[in-house]
Amino acid sequence: MDNVMLLEDDFSLSEGIKLALQSEEVKITICRSIKEARAALSEADFSLLILDINLPDGNGLELLKSIRQSSRTPVIMLTANDMETDIVTGLELGADDYITKPFSLAVLRARVKAQLRRSMPVQSAMEIDGFRFDFERMEFFKDSRELNLSKTEQKLLKLLVLNRGRTLSRDELLDRIWTDGAEYVDENALSVTVKRLRDKLDGCKKLKTVYGIGYIWEK
């Protein structure tokens, strides 16, 4: 589970953000002051930090500066009224992204998901269900037989095995596999890629179709 710290002193806004982001995969820890945030950071590890700038007892940018002295945890800054100086300062201090108030919770949710994906630890070599997958070396084996997978098939396989037990929707897979900026990707491309991957994995029964939704690599 990803643990996300939200530093925001506005009660209604912080609760709304928590409601929008929290799920079975994401836990939201709310802090409403710099003091609370420092205490939380000393007690727990976080996958992502969302920091407001103007707090009752200090400045979120100063907190970001101190965080960057010892941590590369992804940070999204919340800025008010599109303040360009705050945005520039935040990025220079090491913020990974920013979003200006007022903002859409759907947009924030998308930005959060993007940062969590980028920070996801990638296990280079995995042995699972009779296969050995090494994504860093791009080497894939069934028992001792090497499998020749295309770049697209490798992307699909990585998403499926790193999310074992979770159904990935067709839309999510299309968005995360074809990230070359193409405006339109034929949905049949995913079906074809899944079929080719399944064939190369000797009809692996762990890779299943969830009809009407997407695909899953069962645990």
Helix count equals 8
End-to-end distance: 17 Å
Broad shape: elongated
- Proportion of residues in extended strands: 25-35%
Mean pLDDT rating: 89
- Proportion of residues in helical segments: 25-40%
Q: Characterize the largest beta sheet: strand count, sense, and whether it forms a barrel.
A: 5 strands, parallel
Series of secondary-structure elements, N-terminal to C-terminal: EHEHEEEHEHEHEEEEHEHHEE
Please give the order of strands in the largest beta sheet: 2-1-3-6-7
Number of strands: 14
Looking at this protein, list some descriptive labels.
219 residues; alpha/beta; 5-stranded parallel beta sheet; 26% strand; elongated
Q: What does this 3D model show about the protein?
A:
The chain has helices at 11-21, 34-43, 60-67, 84-93, 105-119, 151-162, 170-177, 188-200, and strands at residues 2-7, 26-31, 48-52, 54-55, 58-59, 75-80, 97-101, 125-128, 131-134, 139-142, 145-147, 168-169, 207-210, 214-217. By secondary structure, the protein is an alpha/beta fold. The strands form 4 sheets. It has a 5-stranded parallel β-sheet, sandwiched between helices. The protein has a 4-stranded antiparallel β-sheet with strand order 8-9-10-11, with no helix packed on it. The chain has a 3-stranded antiparallel β-sheet with strand order 12-14-13. Helix 1 crosses helix 5 and helix 6 (151-162) crosses helix 8. The model has no long low-confidence stretch (mean pLDDT 89).
